[in-house]
Design a protein that fits this description.
alpha/beta; Rossmann fold; 7-stranded mixed beta sheet; two-stranded antiparallel ribbon; nucleic acid binding; HemK-like; S-adenosylmethionine-dependent methyltransferase activity; protein methyltransferase activity
Length: about 350
Amino acid sequence: MKLGLSRACLYSSCCASISSSSMPSLTAIKPKIPIFLRQPTYSVTSSDLQKWHGWAKNLVSSVGSSFVESDNGPDSTLLCRELNWLLEDSLENRSSSSCFSFPACKYDTVDEIENVMLRISLDDLYQLWKQRIEDRRPFQYIVGCEHWRDLVLSVQEGVLIPRPETELIVDLVSDAVSNNEELGQGLWADLGTGSGAVAIGISKILRFYGRVIATDLSPDAVSVAMFNVQRYGLQHVIEVRRGSWFEPLKDVEGQLVGIVSNPPYIPSDNISGLQAEVGRHEPRLALDGGASGMDYLLHLCNGAAAMLKPGGFFAFETNGEKQCKFLVDYMQNEIAGSFCNLNIVSDFAGIQRFVTGFRQ
């Protein structure tokens, strides 16, 4: 798994209403509002904001390449860009951040700006950046969102941060739907939805002709996924259910035209060696795939055989070539006759990452 840190220019503050009937009854956790969606209610002087940035810049300088050397973490250049993004998200007027010359991780005296409005207090800015550097808290948890495809998704502790490579699942679904009209009009399932990223991406492919059920065991993930579905006005297309894998789908057994999942696939013994931002902070529930990393991938294969309609499509993300080949071999030999047209697809980096196929 890679830690996705790309940023897009999409900032949408629209928030559609959601019917109470679609809210999971087991979810009482209120998702945190991303910084860029908060109201700018904090007034600070430009001088005080510059002092914060000077302090934050010094923390970045102290890092150098130490994070890279310890666990392939971010270097000071990337942290400088994050500093820029944090300021942009925090300012009422994003264009004001250019006055601070942040792209070069420097700042100038800004005499013409006496006061600026922030969406977060200056004390919180100090605290958040300290957490970013000293605790290696993921940047996405700091600002409360991640940019993924054309989406800006809420994320927070307890919810896996969607990765750039996972974006390909949506493309794989798009290809399958374009070749089979029935797939575009049926019922899909996104298992282990996390932030709801894949479910939302798929719903845009279906264009309101099909529906998606997104499941997750974590109440944090269910809450955040519902928030994201709501923001994009897709609550009548996507239904979020809390539960483990296929358990919440008993009422639609054999009726699904598609199943997708980015399950936990990191071998248990490898968790401690992950980048600190991942291993220390992201939910182990969404990372740990058992001794070989294959526990949930095999469970998905077995369940998909019962849940999919004949001709139904699936796409599963894996840890790489070894898991892909193991999964294909398992489906061809251990559950022979269940699937056809099995295929291994590489991610953007050329790593064999996905296994796709169709219900026989």
